Structures are given as C-alpha cells and as structure tokens.
Amino acid sequence: MRFATVISQRGRAGGRPGMGAVMGSKNLKAVVFKGDEEPEAADPQKLRELGREAYREIAEKPNYDFWRRQGTMATIEWCQENSTLPTYNFREGVFDEADGISGSTMERMVVKQRGCPNCNMICGNVIEDAEGVESELDYENVAMLGSNIGIGDLKKVAVLNRVCDELGLDTISAGNTLGFAIEAAEKGLLDIDVTWGDHEGARRLLEDIAYRRGDAGRLLSLGVREAAERLGGGASDFAIHVKGLECSAYDCHLCPGMALSFGTSPIGAHHKDAWVISWEISSGRRAEYIPEKADKVIEFQRIRGGMFECLVTCRFPWIELGFELDWYPRFLEAATGVSMSLDELLTLGDRVYALIRAFWVREYGGEWSRRMDYPPRRWCEEPLTKGPLKGAHLELEGYDRLLQAYYDKRGWDERGIPTRETFRRLGLESEARELERFVELH
Ligand code: SF4
C-alpha cells in the first residue's frame, strides 16, 4: 500500500511518503545493522568534547524541562489556541474535545519516555492505550488520529497510533485518509461503517487499508489523491494533499506562509523542512501574502531540508530550544574531517531543492505546472465555520503572488522550474542537460 512506513525501535518511523512501500516493492522486509565496533571519527577527542559541551548547553536552555515533559505534544494546545488544529478532515482549526488529547492530559498518563540513542532531549512519551498496551505519542500522530477524525480520548487515539506502528502505516497519511474516508461516507460516496469519533471503526478500517481488504480498503490504500479521483463526485475537493502526499497536522485556512511551505516541500505536503507556522503566527498573522513569508520558507528549507537532512541530524535542538546553527559545521568537521562553513552547508539546501525539483519536473514532463505547488482546495474555498477565525480562508490570488515571490527568490521560472542560470550557479549543469530532454529550460 502507498503509505507503508519503515519502523525502528518499535515506534520510531522513517515515516512519510511511502518509504516502506519502496522497500516492499523490492521485496525488502528489513534492514539489520549488526556489529560491535565503533565507527571511527576524524577527531574522536574533539567530538567527545563537543558532545559534552552540547549536552550541557542544551540542558541549560530555558524550555528544556518543559520539552522533556511534553516533547512535541505541547503543540496540541498551541494549535487549538491558534485555530490550526486539523479537525474533521481539515474543515476546522479548533476541536471541542482538544483538552482530552492535549500534552497536559498526556503528562498525567506517561509511563515512560523513549527516544533516539544518546539524545538528552528525548521526545517520545509512552502511555498505556485503551487496550492496556504501550503506545508512543507525538503531536502529529495525535492530531491526525485524534481531532482530525473527531476522537477526543487520548487512550483511544493511542490505540490507533500503536496499530499504525504495528501495521507499518504512516500515521499522518493514515489519519488524513481516515478523515477523507469518513467524510466521503458522510457524503454518500463511500460505503463504510465508520463515523467521526468512532475509534473501533477507524481501527477496523486501518486494518482493511493495510491488508488492502475489501473495496474500501483497496481504494484507500492508494492514498487520498488517487482514491478521490477514482471516487469522483467532487471527492477531490476534500482530499487534503499536495502532489499526492497527505497534509500533515497544520490547518492553513489562515496561514499562507505555512501553506506555501506545504506547497513547495520537496516530498509533497509535509512540514519537515519549513515549519514556519510558529514564526508566521507570532509575527502578525494577518499581514498575509507578503514576500517576507517566501523568504522565511526558503530560509527554513535551507536549514532543515538542506543542512540538517544532509547531516542526518535532528532538527529539534535548533527549532525547539534555540541550539545555535554554528555548532553543526564544528560537529561535521570533528566527525568526518570535512571542513565547510555554515554558508556552504546552507547552499546545500539550494542544490537539494533544485535537484528534487528537476526530478519532479522530469517525472511529470508536459503535465508539470505551477498548480502542482497549490494548496488543497478546501483551505481556499471553504472558510472555517467555528472558533476565533470563523470565516477565514486562503485567497488563491494572494497565494499565487507569494508563490511567485518564492520562485523569483529561488531563481525558478514562472512554471516553478529552476532556470538554466540557476542550475549553472549551483553546479548542476549535467542535471539541467538531462532535464532539457523533457522540458525547455528558460
Ligand atoms: S534525536 Fe530528536 S527525535 Fe530523537 S529523541 Fe532526540 S529530540 Fe527526539
């Protein structure tokens, strides 16, 4: 199925756009690392010193204790306050039962914490779910399998979360697809026996999807874009995705910057690179379609999608605790002996983005257009009906201006394709030549 994921450590997922499906398509079931030797570092002494200093610095950051208690789960309350909590398949940004799935509620239930090896800001909080089994929670899972399908009981949400991990489903796409399915059933387009807030029904449907069982299971295993196209009847209007990847847990009815981030993310609608929503809200949310938002999206994409991804490092120390960026070149040099300035590391992000864009354009060929970077229709055409932002919606014209500002800043043409000059500047001439076999470059 399309949103199969790769699981490690029982609940940590190499989660999004179907990495497990790629493995499955090659009959690859698992990857096991076995050995007892330490990898060699270029300067082990320096690396140890840096590690000690970094641990100390992180533990002294003002938000450290709160983070250790809640991890990403504090985001539920923050999103609820700011009307960005995905609710009923992204129809609304507030959920009447948000208290029941909040970080504070979770704090009272935690049985242990779990994280990546050697991390001193571990973020996984494990609770006992409604079936008495341990389940590791995080904001995205809880929002998508909670408010987005109308469930306000954290222990029930935890069951769905754990079942997704056991079945190897991406929790974000799973919650998004369940929301789509329930709405499709509500509108008489899909024959399933699941309603909002029904965790038993949702659980059954998740299993049907994972095993591609029955008409609904087979259809929904394709993800919301394709399921909607096959269903017809206007289902594409409430399929919440960009480029076929189901949106992660931020409602963007009044967050054009975050919508741009989803629109231009290199893997489809995901927040992994440009999580600009907190900056956007704190810096005057109603100054809507200003070019500074495009600048901020690019700045974050360079840091998170370029430097952090290439270094294979966690983004939380920087984004959550303000761990300074100039640590990263120092760690790189001690670990590998490669000396690069922060600026050089950030330029990697521009190369990564141009390269992935070239890949998309090559795969879509003549079908490619800037519309591929547009947000889901619902955010533009169906205003919020509740909460402090009642009536709010994105304006496509404004979004299009923002998108153009983004392209201009990146050196991409009006179709969203890097120009010949941009490819040259980034040292990607041979990739540009390859791309010219499929589209004309400007
Ligand atoms: S490395 Fe990052 S994702 Fe892993 S436990 Fe630490 S903060 Fe969480």
SSE diagram, text form:
Elements: E1 6-8, E2 12-14, H1 19-25, H2 44-59, H3 64-70, H4 74-81, H5 103-107, E3 110-114, E4 124-128, E5 134-137, H6 139-145, H7 154-167, H8 171-186, H9 199-210, H10 214-220, H11 224-231, E6 241-242, E7 245-246, H12 256-264, H13 277-282, H14 291-311, H15 316-321, H16 327-336, H17 342-364, H18 377-381, H19 396-410, H20 420-425, H21 429-435
Antiparallel strand pairs: 1-2, 3-4, 4-5, 6-7
Helix pairs in contact: 2-16, 6-8, 7-9, 9-10, 12-14, 12-19, 14-17, 14-19
Residues 115-116, 119, 121-123, 314, 316 line the site of iron/sulfur cluster (SF4).
Order of helices and strands: EEHHHHHEEEHHHHHHEEHHHHHHHHHH
Radius of gyration: 22 Å
Beta fraction: 5-15%
Which small molecules are bound? iron/sulfur cluster
Structural class call reads mainly alpha
Can you identify the CATH superfamily of the largest domain?
Answer: Aldehyde Ferredoxin Oxidoreductase Protein, subunit A, domain 3
Strand ordering within the main sheet: 3-4-5
Name of the level-1 CATH class of the largest domain: Mainly Alpha
What oligomeric state is this?
A: single chain
